[in-house]
Amino acid sequence: MVKTLVFKGDKKPKKRKHREAEETEDKPATLKSTNQVATTKDEDDSWVTAEIPSDIAGPIVFALSTTSSTCIACDVNGKVFLSKIENIIDGDGTTAEPHDIRQVWVANRVAGTEYTSFKGHHGRYLGCDQFGILSATREAISAEESLLCIASTDTFGTFNIQTQRGKFFTIDENTGSAEVRGDAEVVSFSTALRIRMQARYKPQLKADKESKAREKISRKELEDVVGRRLGDDEVKGLKKARREGNYHEAILDVRVRGKHDKYS
Predict the structure, then answer these.
(1) Bridge partners, 106 (sequence order)
(2) Can you tell me whether residue 148 is helix, strand or coil?
(3) Is 95 exposed, middle or buried (0-12, 13-18, 19+ CB in 10 A)?
């Protein structure tokens, strides 16, 4: 489920104070459960750069390599236009973040294919017609709304977006004002763009967080499970096993070793 986006500068809503909170002030703090910790970590609203096609999921921003930092946006009628990125450091696309909901698209893999769909803020999908004109007016996904994100071989962390007609998204700055089209025949500097996404949707970051969550177990918890005091090497070994997925087997080994030591 995609959560409400939070932009830089937005004030966080104040939470009401309940009488129960006052009653528990003098009570000793209790450890958060693993589920509570995991929930907090999953709410990471920071923006990171997609590096490979399988990263692309959830809310994203197409950061373009235009003279002035811009991204692909659309209005409520589905008209696609270039929008200036305000949340960016020194024009570096790897720091771009949206400040306007019109700049945000929600990426999802098209079922059973390697294509991706991008839904706008108004509930319609980004597509490209036979003339290379981009729009976001359709409520359902067809071939025109199924786009292929191809990792660039020239610059790591950039992508070329290909339509099912074999054409690529490109930036045309030769006209009076820059515009984005979908009719480039070959990839070039103008077809490369960065995709910025929310950190909690990036698979590698999610895996890293899950691994760290598995590591977070205290010596006391391990000793309670084993049923005796543990040495430093045993604690390190059990934490490593928990991280690598063979925790239960390691616990059994430590228990058996403890019994042997007891009767030797």
Answers:
(1) 59, 119
(2) strand
(3) middle
Element housing 73 (H / E)? strand 70-74
Structure tokens at 179: 């515009």
Question: How do residues 171-210 score in pLDDT, each as one tens digit?
Answer: 988 766 789 999 999 999 999 999 999 998 988 666 566 5
Residue 62, judged by CB atoms within 10 A of its CB (0-12, 13-18, 19+), counts as buried
pLDDT of amino acid 15? 56
Q: Are 182 and 170 in contact (CB under 8 A)?
A: yes
Start-to-end C-alpha separation, the chain: 56
CA distance 257 to 28: 36
Q: Contact, 46 vs 83, CB < 8 A?
A: no
The two structure tokens encoding residue 114: 């390697």
Tokens of 20: 């129960």
Spatial distance between the Cα atoms of 258 and 226, rounded to a whole number of angstroms: 9
pTM: 0.66
Instruction: Give the model's confidence band at 262: pLDDT under 50 very low, under 70 low, under 90 confident, else very high.
Output: low
Per-residue tokens: 94: 């790897």
Q: How far apart are CA 88 and CA 83, in angstroms?
A: 13
- For residue 28, is pLDDT > 70? no
Q: Which amino acid is at 107?
A: A
Could you give the dihedral angle defined by the CA atoms of residues 85, 88, 92 and 98, in that order, rounded to the nearest 10 degrees? -50
